[in-house]
């Protein structure tokens, strides 16, 4: 019998490590509450800068999780991303409109607007406009996959400021991200997927396809770092194999894919020093390859 897959089993649960912004008084070199667009009150970012180095600094854009219906920028869960400050990266942690207040693809429009904002204001903030990387967890990983792989496609690039500026990302780190929004209870109006799409999935199948990262995979897309846990009870391992197959079918060689044995959803195994080093090694290598290609 085929197992029913439910991505978010309890749409009312809110993990405090994701839901609440964390004050970080130890980080002095930062600018908080920067508006990057003007459509909703959620369109704010916090910018953190390295204490050393002259820049311009490559940028990692932190995209929080929370089932699309909750979550906050600068939450506890972004600690590994902030490790980039010691490695010469600036970090932009962004909020996007939660699904109770705006449905897909608004969140993609917003992430692309955030990228355009960073690129348009690179000189002001001493940023490397050519090297912007997304780093998303769970629902944020889902949004980061779509944002990075759709690039400047008009379909998902409604201008929300800085029109004409590219919204392309150089790479994306995506950890335990959902892929197929039709794999759960498609008749429910209360699921996290239904909230994101604006109605029961079975009535939103065309939109569900647009919300599937596999719809945007092409051979030339920017590199993805993907990790999943095989003990994940929220985003089942079937999602991992679905996106892996799509990448392989496209003939891609630029991605990193890994199953972490025994890891549950948002497991601390994703946040070990060893894994954080692995992620930054991937980012550094991909940016180096990109810059070498563009310098030829």
Description:
The protein is an alpha/beta fold. The protein has a single domain (16-295), classed as Rossmann fold (3-Layer(aba) Sandwich), CATH 3.40.50.1820. It is built from nine helices and eight strands. Strands 1-2-4-3-5-6-7-8 form an eight-stranded mixed beta sheet, sandwiched between helices. Helix 3 (106-120) packs across helix 5. The radius of gyration is 18 Å and the shape is globular. The model is unreliable at 1-6 (pLDDT under 50).
Give me the Rg, rounded: 18 Å
Overall number of domains: 1
Largest sheet: 8 strands, mixed
Low-confidence stretches: 1-6
CATH domain class name? Alpha Beta
- Give me the side-by-side strand order of the main sheet: 1-2-4-3-5-6-7-8
> Mean pLDDT, rounded to whole units?
93
Oligomer: single chain
**Rough shape?**
globular
Secondary-structure element series? HEEEHEHHEHEHHEHEH
Assess the beta-strand content as a share of residues: 15-25%
CATH topology (level 3) name: Rossmann fold
What fraction, in percent, of the residue positions are helical? 25-40%
Number of helices: 9
Name of the CATH superfamily: Alpha/Beta hydrolase fold, catalytic domain
Which CATH architecture would you pick?
Answer: 3-Layer(aba) Sandwich
Indicate the topology:
Elements lengths: L15 H4 L10 E6 L8 E5 L8 E7 L15 H4 L7 E5 L11 H15 L1 H4 L1 E11 L1 H12 L20 E5 L16 H6 L7 H6 L13 E6 L7 H13 L6 E5 L12 H23 L1
Parallel strand pairs: 3-4, 3-5, 5-6, 6-7, 7-8
Antiparallel strand pairs: 1-2, 2-4
């Amino acid at each position: 019998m085929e197992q029913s897959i439910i991505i978010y089993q309890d749409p009312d649960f809110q993990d405090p490590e994701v839901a609440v912004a964390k004050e970080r008084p130890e980080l002095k070199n930062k600018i908080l509450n920067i508006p990057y667009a003007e459509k909703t009150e959620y369109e704010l970012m916090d910018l953190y800068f390295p204490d050393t180095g002259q820049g311009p600094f490559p940028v990692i854009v932190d995209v929080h999780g929370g089932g699309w219906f909750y979550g906050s920028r600068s939450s506890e869960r972004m600690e590994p991303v902030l490790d980039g400050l010691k490695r010469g990266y600036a970090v932009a942690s962004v909020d996007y409109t939660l699904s109770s207040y705006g449905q897909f693809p608004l969140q993609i429009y917003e992430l692309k607007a955030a990228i355009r904002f960073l690129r348009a204001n690179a000189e002001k903030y001493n940023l490397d406009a050519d090297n912007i990387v997304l780093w998303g967890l769970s629902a944020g990983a889902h949004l980061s996959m779509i944002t990075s792989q759709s690039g400047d496609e008009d379909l998902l690039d409604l201008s929300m400021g800085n029109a004409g500026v590219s919204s392309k990302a150089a790479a994306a780190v995506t950890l335990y991200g959902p892929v197929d929004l039709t794999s759960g209870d498609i008749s429910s109006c209360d699921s996290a997927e239904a909230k994101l799409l604006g109605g029961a999935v079975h009535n939103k199948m065309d939109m569900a396809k647009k919300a599937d990262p596999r719809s945007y995979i092409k051979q030339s897309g920017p590199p993805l770092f993907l990790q999943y846990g095989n003990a994940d009870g929220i985003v089942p391992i079937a999602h991992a194999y679905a996106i892996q197959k799509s990448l392989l079918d496209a003939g891609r060689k630029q991605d990193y894919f890994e199953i972490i044995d025994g890891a549950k959803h948002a497991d601390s195994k994703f946040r070990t020093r060893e894994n954080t080093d692995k992620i930054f090694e991937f980012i550094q290598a991909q940016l180096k390859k990109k810059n070498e290609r563009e310098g030829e």
